[in-house]
Amino acid sequence: MTCKGIFSIEFGDIAPDGGVATTFERWGRTRENTLAFSPSDAQTTDINVEEEDDPIDQVETSKKTLDISWSQVDWDDDVLISYFGGAVVNNQWQAPDQSPLVEKSLRIKPKSGKAFIYPRVKVTANENYDSSGKLFQLDIKCRKLKPEKAGVGAFMWGEP
Fold first, then answer.
1. Angstrom distance (rounded) from CA 84 to CA 138
2. Which of 25, 42, 107, 121 lies at a CB distance of 3.0 to 4.6 Å from 142, suitable for a disulfide?
């Protein structure tokens, strides 16, 4: 698999049937060198017996997870509402009392190579002032989730 640089990171509304979005849009630009894929190992439980020192078996109790994160350096009121909820009052975005649950389809398009598509991700965002780069940025994190539509993989490589 060969990919070089990022052309865009885009979100789309999950299809009504639980499948991947049919249209995507970019919510902002990505700060250089911040895109990261962070997989975790599957959770396992060893099966032990009194008569043996080593486990006699190992059972996978949960599948491995994948978090995708990056920092976004520009946004507008609509983007803040998409990530955090809230509303614009008197030309000023105001945060809500409770954060919304944001689930979207995610597409990452490299400058060369095939797109990475995740039909369903949970999206969270945090405000961050990076004093080293003197930037106020949004730190975005997406957790890959199982699509609600049967027969759709949680990860796709390439456009249909």
1. 11
2. 121
